Amino acid sequence: MTRSGGGQGAPPRGRAAGLAPDLAPGRRILWWALTSAGILLLALVGVRLQANGLPIAIWWPAAGLSLAFALRVAPERRWIVLALIFALTATANAIAGRSWELWLLYAFFNTLEVLLVTALLTRRGTGFRLDTLSRATGFVAAVLGGAAVASVGIAATNVLLLRDDFFPTSIVIFASHSSAMILIGSLAILPAGREERARPLELVVHAAAVGASVILTFGPPGLAHLSFLTFAAIAVACLRFPVRVATWSALLTSIAVLLLTLTAGGRSGLGTVESRDAAVTLVVFMSAIGVFTVLVSTARFEGRTNAALAVRAAEDIAAAERARAAAMTQQLDLERQREDFVTAASHELRTPVTNVLGYADLLTDSPLSGDQRGWVEAIRRGAARLAGLLDGLTQAASGGEPTRIPVDDLILEVCDAHRPEAVARGTHLVTTPSGLHVWAAEPDARRALWSLVSNAVTFAEAGTVRVEARRDGDDIAIVVADDGPGMSPETLASAFERFFRGREAEGRTASGLGLGLANARDLARRNNGDVTLVSTPGRGVRATLRLPAAPAV
Fold first, then answer.
1. 1-25 pLDDT, tens digit each
2. Kind of pairing, strands 403-406 and 437-440?
3. Which letter, b or e, does each residue of 403-442 get, where b requires 16 or more Cβ atoms within 10 Å of its Cβ?
4. Left, alpha or beta for 27 (phi > 0: left; psi -120 to 50: alpha)?
5. CA gap 181, 346 in Å, rounded
6. Cα 482 to Cα 293: distance, rounded to the nearest angstrom
7. What is the 8-class DSSP label of residue 15?
8. What predicted TM-score, i.e. pTM, was given to this entire model?
């Protein structure tokens, strides 16, 4: 049987199929010439591998080299390779003395076979590699399909022209071509990337084990029932060595089995296989070795690749976690330094602020003119606000025990304290009675609402601030809404960060350190509540203080 193909080893690691176009022009011509000569040489060798009762070659290694050649060239040059396969196959059969009808049809079906397999493997791109089990399965299926087409065509040709039996011939052709394409053609599409190197001692031991099993089974002892030992040795190579080593081991093992079969177990010179049955057994055995090697070695490669990716991903995650831990440590250290500074600064400021408030109270009780009393009231408001800021900086760890608090009284107390500032800013404070009660620590509730109302009065200058409460499930929602400039999405996203002041605060007579909202939320949350904000730029802010509703009495 005849067939041609070309190919060299696998392409450089990490590159797609198509080695020849990447070579310098001179080397490319040499590569094509050597590969073509190799196909012709293997075809001439193949036509001499005969079995008694069969008019065809029992193994056709040119099929494997032809497939490798077609897979390795660029797609736009593949038609040239197919033309070479046809010409070289026809030439080899003509030299062997076959009639022109035979060598013409043999060459046609050999070329058709390579065309079909190549088309199936490259239909989704030119970079086909045996790097996953699914691709290896596709490769085997494509090879078996192409071999089936060639076997039917060549066997039918023999029936018509040589009056040969169809089934024995087709079986030998199918196994002969499929084993050659799997064992040799796979060398052109081995996985890209660097694999681990096989240890020399292991290779020596493996070669000795394979050689011993082959000699025992196919050599002079003729212990055919021990053929499983050869498969066992090949299995070890597939599971232990890189795909390249396992594939070469299977190819060399198959060639050794072929030579021992042709020499009657090494007892005579090269001849012909004794019978059709022996030829069928031989090529089926070689085909089985090829299929087994490709599937098992590729599955191992895929498993090791996935494991390496998993390890690399785990290392990346670990590195990210270490970086995150370092960042958190740094953040905690900065928080500690900031807390230390705030504690020290507030402690130093509290005494003078208390003195200012005390003397302002004394002056308020003294006989003053109208202007003087206004000045004293301004001093007192400023000192009171500064005292509130200091309280926010050093809020107590606990606000006390929760108690039943009338919401209306809480709102009136906080709003009355802010009315002077609201009047000074031209802001209207509007409250709506609700008759509701919350369950919280009174200092915490007062200070949380104080922060929200203070912000609203500050930013709703010459506007309106509405404070009202409603029942919302198990909570009471105290809503502070203003019609000020509102918050941008960026400011809203960072509004609860401590010491954050948005762009909207720039250019306004708004004092503060950016702690009000953060403190308000912390105070609400430690009373099983929360603070939320809703805002549209240019339409004000709607701040909601949620606290648990007081149980009914």
1. 433 333 333 334 334 344 444 567 7
2. antiparallel
3. eebebbebbeebbebbeebbeebebebebeebebbbbbbb
4. alpha
5. 85
6. 77
7. -
8. 0.59
